[in-house]
Specification:
Blueprint lengths: L1 H13 L16 E9 L4 E11 L9 E8 L5 E9 L1 H6 L5 H11 L5
Antiparallel strand pairs: 1-2, 2-3, 3-4
């Protein structure tokens, strides 16, 4: 009787466990950020953002605008908004988007992961 109980306990402990891991980083080319809770009621958490710049012309004396979208870890849109990019940032912008990435991250006080 004790052997049967010990065998049952051993089987239940050593049985394989399947764990499903939630896929992260689901938005292509998104900037991954340290998680920030956005809405305490719905418990939305921002983990990645994307941006698109518009209103950029040949006259770099003017700034431009950007449209920023924030997503959770599953790729669900949490919020969006416009961030004005000042002329001095536009004038420094070359082929690397890091300058704009950093400006937007600082604007929203987000930290790159």
């Amino acid at each position: 009787m004790l052997t049967a109980i010990a065998t049952a306990i051993t089987l239940s402990v050593t049985a394989p466990v399947q764990v499903q891991v939630q896929q992260a980083d689901t938005i292509p080319a998104a900037i991954q950020v340290k998680p920030v809770e956005f809405n305490k009621l719905t418990k939305d958490t921002i983990t990645q953002i994307t941006w698109v710049v518009f209103g950029l012309g040949r006259d770099t004396a003017q700034g431009c605008n950007s449209y920023v979208v924030a997503y959770d870890r599953k790729g669900k849109k949490v919020t969006d908004g416009n961030v004005p990019i000042p002329a001095h940032i536009v004038q420094q912008w070359g082929t690397d988007n890091t300058l704009i990435d950093d400006f937007i991250l600082n604007f929203y006080k987000l930290v790159k992961r």
